[in-house]
Amino acid sequence: MNHHTYIAIEGPIGVGKTTVARILQEEMRGQVLFEVFEENPFLGDFYADRARYAFQTQIFFLLSRYRQQHETVARLLKRGPLFSDYLFAKDRLFAQLNLAGDELAVYEHVHAALGEQVIAPGLVIHLRATTDVLMTRIAVRDRPYERTMSRQYIDDLRVAYERFFADYDQGPVLNIDTTELNFVANADDRRHLIGLVRSAAVGLLPAAAADSRSFTGNRRRAERAGWPAAPAERPTGAAPRQPARRSGGRSVPGLPAVDGAGRRAGQPVEAAVDTALRRDAGNGHVRLRLPCAGPIDAAR
Q: pLDDT for 33-55, tens place per residue?
């Protein structure tokens, strides 16, 4: 792996993203970037009342993730391989699951302006598991703000991740079903994980052409089917990497018309993303300020 290798680990809540990021950091001697999610002041309220606090929670996450990615990724990549326990693009997955109408339109406008400023990973590891396994893992780690999560929400999220990566075209994806795997307690499972990642990352560059469904991994299923122990190589002649999708230049109520990059033609992106979020104490009121358009209030 060269010093420009950047791998992001993704999957639904409870699937083990941070655990895998730590393992890869230790085994491959790289840098690690962890998502900072506990600082979101709306998170506990969101799990208690999704409809009321979805917009505040999602905008806070979007800006927080952008700030961390924009300020940190390029610097860490200069030091060596980088492993992150989240993918910036997944923020939109959660928004589409939790927002609708004008709130989703405002979110899409801001996301389009920020997204093209973020470095995309050269490989994404998509961790999968059944809903029952996810619920068990969430219960075992027992984070206070996750105790009220419904099984239906986790199942909806799992399905949303499957759909998201079925259409993902910004780079190769390594799919690993973790339902029957335990990377912490089982050394064989851990070696299997490392082998899959090393094989997928050989010669990988951030802009390498690859099919987004080139790799899959489940050791026990492979053994039962009589497949070779070594993971299959990426097929040759894979389709070239497609450019990242952008918001299609639509107008958003209350905002000026934007171009495909999510901003007015000729406007510096720094002006479009100079954004501040403030919550008025006690009333769940959020104020999103876009200097190019004036403030937008979204009281739930």
A: 999 877 889 988 998 898 999 99
Helical spans, DSSP H, in the chain: 17-28, 43-48, 50-77, 90-98, 101-115, 131-141, 151-166, 187-201, 219-225, 269-272
Residue 28 predicted with pLDDT over 70: yes
| DSSP 3-state of 263 | coil
Q: CA 6, CA 243: separation in Å to the nearest integer?
A: 18
Burial per residue of 79-114, b for 16 or more beta-carbon CB atoms within 10 angstroms, e otherwise: eebbbbbbbbbbbbbbbbbbbeeebbbbbbbbbbbb
- List, in order, residues 6 or more apart from 59 with CB less than 8 Å away: 107, 110, 277, 286, 288
Cβ proximity of 8 and 149 under 8 Å: no
Cα angle vertex 122, ends 116, 126, to 5°?
100
Sheet of 123-128, strands arranged across: 31-33, 82-84, 6-10, 123-128, 173-177, 215-217
With CA atoms as reference, report the closest residue to 276 among 294, 250, 299: 294
Range with the lowest mean pLDDT among 73-82, 96-105, 246-255? 246-255
Other CB atoms within a 10 A radius of the CB of residue 115 amount to 22
Q: Residue 175, SS3?
A: strand
Is this model's pTM higher than 0.70 or not?
Answer: no
Tokens for 231, please give them: 């993971």
Q: Which of 1-15, 130-144, 229-243 has the lowest mean pLDDT?
A: 229-243
Q: How does DSSP assign 114-169, residue by residue?
A: HHTTSPPPSEEEEEE--HHHHHHHHHHHT-GGGTT--HHHHHHHHHHHHHHHHS--
- In what helix (H) or strand (E) does residue 255 lie, and over which residues does it extend? none
Alpha-carbon Rg for the chain in angstroms: 20
Residue pointed to by tokens 């989703």: 104
10: which strand partners? 126
Better-predicted residue by pLDDT, 47 or 135: 135
